[in-house]
Automatic annotation (TrEMBL):
Highest taxon of the lineage: Eukaryota
Protein name: Uncharacterized protein
InterPro entries reported for this sequence: Peptidase_aspartic_dom_sf
Species per Swiss-Prot/TrEMBL record: Araneus ventricosus (Orbweaver spider)
Length: 242
């Protein structure tokens, strides 16, 4: 059982798994479960690794209902979002809404990313469209959230613009996949031959040839001084009975 505290959450339907920052996990006092995951992002590039996951219980600031999700623990999730402090006071379409994050306009760190494993369970479907170059308001079980294009004229001066795109997949068995790949691609190891097998190999190499009819001929190997069994008398009787 961990601690309850306010966290900043990003809803990301493009992420296959939910994620939590290492710092947030520590602050919440969550028990970690061992695992091995490689985080792959835009351009199929490896962007991080996770060696543990936690069972994360969360609720909204507005409603008492709780939700449970498994979240991979990763050192750093993303840059501060939004990328710049925004002036939003003239966005009339959101003025009377109960926002999931009343401080959405302040650029701050993201503590948790809720991915596709829980995203659509939270979305309720209603949306409100504002003026051009203002975000949509989407109704969720956590409160109203904002998404969409925002004009740079809403940027408060002296902020630095960055573009942030999220698309995360988790490779659960990368270690095993790599091991299997090398096993498949490895050249077969040559087995050592016994003395008798070595003699047969040399005899074949030194005596094999192709005759005029196109057939291959090779001498047969015989064991020297090989003792036969007690079958001579039986063989002689069979011979005379012919």
């Amino acid at each position: 059982m961990g601690n309850w505290q306010n966290c900043r959450v990003l809803l990301d339907s493009a992420s296959q798994m939910s994620l939590i920052s290492e710092e947030c996990c520590t602050n919440l006092g969550l028990s970690r479960n061992s695992s091995s995951h490689t985080i792959i992002g835009i351009g199929n590039q490896i962007v991080g690794n996770s060696d543990s996951f936690v069972k994360l219980e969360f609720t909204s600031l507005l409603h008492p209902e709780t939700y449970l999700v498994n979240a991979l623990v990763i050192k750093s999730l993303t840059t501060n979002l939004p990328n710049f402090h925004m002036s939003h006071y003239h966005w009339n379409h959101i003025q009377n809404l109960q926002l999931a994050d009343p401080e959405f306009h302040i650029s701050k760190p993201i503590n948790i990313i809720l991915g596709a494993d829980i995203f659509f369970e939270l979305i309720q479907g209603n949306q409100i469209k504002g003026a051009k170059n203002t975000p949509y308001a989407i109704d969720t079980k956590l409160g109203w959230v904002l998404c969409g294009k925002v004009s740079s004229r809403h940027e408060i001066p002296h902020s630095q613009n960055k573009f942030v795109s999220h698309h995360t997949t988790s490779n659960f068995n990368l270690k095993n996949d790599i091991q299997n790949f090398w096993e498949l691609e490895s050249l077969p190891q040559e087995n050592s031959l016994s003395n008798e097998e070595q003699i047969c190999e040399e005899l074949y190499k030194s005596t094999v040839y192709r005759d005029d009819s196109g057939l291959y001929t090779v001498k047969l190997p015989f064991k020297p001084h090989h003792k036969l069994g007690n079958s001579k008398s039986t063989a002689v009787k069979c011979f005379y009975s012919l």
